[in-house]
Amino acid sequence: MSNQIFVVVEHLKGKIEDITFEMLGKGKEMADASGGELVAVLLGSGAEGMASQLGAASKVIYVDDANLAEYNPQAYCKAVGSVVEANSPKMVLIGNTSMGMDIAGGVSVDLNIPFVAYASGISNDGGTITSALYGGKMNVDSSPSGDGCIVSVISGSFPADAGRVDGSPSVETASADLSGLTIQFKRLIEPEGGDVDITQQEILISVGRGIQSDENLPLAEELAAKLGGAISCSRPIVDSKWLSKTRQVGKSGLKVKPKLYLALGISGAPEHIEGMKDADLIIAVNTDPKAPIFDYAHYGVVQDLFDFIPALSGKL
Amino acid sequence: MNIIVPIKQVPDLVEELEINSDGTDLDREWLKMKLNEFDDHALEEALLMKDDSGATVTAIALDGDDIDKALYAAAAKGADKLVKITGVSGNSTHEAAKAMANAIQGMEYDIIMTGVQSVDDRDGQLAVILAHYLGNSHVSVVTGMQASGGSVTVQKEYGAGMVAEFEASTPIVLGIQAARETPRYVPVAKVRRAQKSSTIEEVAAGDIGVDAGSSVSKMYKPDTGAGAEMIGGSAEDQANKIMELLTQKGIK
Ligand SMILES: Cc1cc2nc3c(=O)[nH]c(=O)nc-3n(C[C@H](O)[C@H](O)[C@H](O)COP(=O)(O)OP(=O)(O)OC[C@H]3O[C@@H](n4cnc5c(N)ncnc54)[C@H](O)[C@@H]3O)c2cc1C
User: Fold this and answer.
1) Helix, strand or coil for residue A14?
2) Chain mean pLDDT for chain B
3) What is the pTM (predicted TM-score) of this model?
4) Which CATH code is given to the segment(s) B2-204?
5) What's A198-315's CATH class?
6) Which of A133, A205, A271 to mutate to test the pocket of ligand 1 (most atoms within 8 A of CB)?
7) What is the percentage of chain B residues whose pLDDT exceeds 70?
């Protein structure tokens, strides 16, 4: 086993995603602390130029293949697996993102190495990994028992700035056998524009499953109107088709940073927190005093939202 | 078409979670369990495909607390076959996936669909790990699919509402994020009837020989409320305090 920390680079439409810089920043800290080497693993087709944004790493391993021109779950699994197998790094950091969720577990099985998911913290020696489980209600510390370990990292766990370093790391090219793929990329479908762009709003009144029914939405809408803000929501509200996808805050929705984020009946699952934790002022209203949202809110109100909303609306 | 839907019971997060005496896991004695909500979506999508084109849907689960009830509920919703895998002791995803792979290897299937994740899958998500034990391809975070012949078009969600579309040949394993429709509800009476009219086939787990690959040293609650200043009192008091705050911050 080498003393290398690998970071799998995630990019879409020519842009490197923040999670990559977050992992590079953390990986650099770990490599510095243990005298190891930070290596970025970049996959693509004609994407070598991105290496100049990966200056936090001392080396970039680059796999160029026509099958990697667009993200492909199967091709990425094979390519990452082959690079990891050839180098036996001490730890491989992969985003706990839509893409990373395809890759991390597959490489763990193919190479028979441990996988620890949902990491929100990693000790600098790599010996202890903190995972956020049970919708953010429990943290679990664990230690990998075997050599090499794949860790999937929750977005927003580490600052991106520490890893956003331009430079000219050495680029080592590698190849992978990507024959026999049974999955082909077809197309990207862009989100439809909404009536309101919630990323541009200064005040968001955000509703979660605590609102119980779409019949109760007007309560929150009235409050939003009185405060001069817009309505946003957690994922289940969109899955129930009560509000459109353009209103969803979080991992698979939008990242927002309003002046006020008023969370009504939202538990604060890690996937939601990713999207709103940088808001200037977060106020959470929830009947459960143990709701994880209170860890991220600046002000917490333990109250039934059906009592709280009319009380606040009445004062506006 | 044959669709297999692995399902699992998970702790209901609405209830208070307590930690066991050695501080490494939940105190499981009093836990209230419910079906993993993403498995419910996977089952719904499978049943919608059955409604559309007459697929055969098999719900499969590892033996465990309340699992018979969950399987009978799947039958009440429309699943054709129920399978329970017995003799698995560990609770890691790797062990569960290996036991499932052993059981599924002898079955006919085109698509396996299960929830994209669960609240306790610390060593990774079931769908991808199961796929690799079976030697099948896999896509996670799936929000739509259309199957025809030996191929399936799959929609996978990225962030910010962006969706990627892939064309894949079967067999394939899919991690389902959301079904086309809100998962159907079945009344308890219908589950009881299903319990009388359907049978659960039991299959032994077979050789497992894998584990989580890591060991837990500590489970603890994040400092809830550590970040927030909590505002007490009646709803009226709380609203007054929030009004003050909004005025003070120049928001209202
Ligand atoms: C790949 C992936 C991506 C995801 N992306 C997102 C995303 O972008 N955004 C997102 O939000 N989620 C996302 N999720 C889902 C996420 O895991 C949670 O399931 C979701 O955030 C929960 O939404 P919620 O807080 O509204 O519901 P719940 O977790 O059910 O919480 C409801 C809350 O309401 C409270 N409550 C109930 N009644 C009342 C009342 N009368 N008054 C006050 N409070 C009340 C309860 O105490 C509870 O805390 C994603 C999941 C996956 C797997």
Assistant:
1) coil
2) 95
3) 0.96
4) 3.40.50.620
5) alpha beta
6) A271
7) 99
Per-domain residue ranges of chain B: 2-204
Q: Where are the alpha helices (DSSP H) in chain A?
A: 18-34, 73-87, 100-111, 217-227, 235-239, 270-276, 293-296, 305-313
- Taking each helix axis from N to C end, the angle separating A100-111 and B126-134, rounded to the nearest 10 degrees, works out to 40
Q: Inter-chain contact B133–A109, Cβ cutoff 8 Å? A: yes
Indicate if the pLDDT at residue B224 is higher than 70. no
Q: Where are the domains of chain A?
A: 4-174, 198-315
Nearest by CB to residue A140, choosing from B122, B138, B245, is B122
Write out the two tokens for A175.
């190849």
Domain spanning A4-174: CATH superfamily: HUPs (3.40.50.620)
Mean pLDDT computed over B88-96 = 91
pLDDT above 90 for B89: no
Residue B215 three-state SS = strand
Give B 181-210 residues with CB within 8 A of chain A. Answer: 182, 210
List of chain B residues whose C-beta atoms are within 8 Å of the C-beta of residue A292? 222, 224
Look at residue B30 in the predicted model and tell me its pLDDT.
85
| pLDDT value at B90 more than 90 | no
Task: Count CB atoms within 10 A of the CB of residue B202.
Answer: 12
Pairing of strands A11-12, A15-16: antiparallel
Residues of A in contact with B123 (CB under 8 A): 108, 114-117
**Interval B27-53: pLDDT, tens:** 988 899 999 999 999 999 999 999 998
Which residue of A143, A297, A316 is in closest CB contact with B214? A143
B235 closest CB neighbour out of A185, A191, A308: A308
Q: What is the pLDDT of residue B223?
A: 77
Give CA–CA dist B186/A199, Å, rounded: 38
Closest atom of ligand 1 to CA, residue A135: 17
Question: Does the structure show a pLDDT above 80 at A175?
Answer: yes
Q: Work out the burial of residue A293: count CB atoms within 10 Å of its CB; fewer than 13 is exposed, 13-18 middle, 19 or more buried.
A: buried
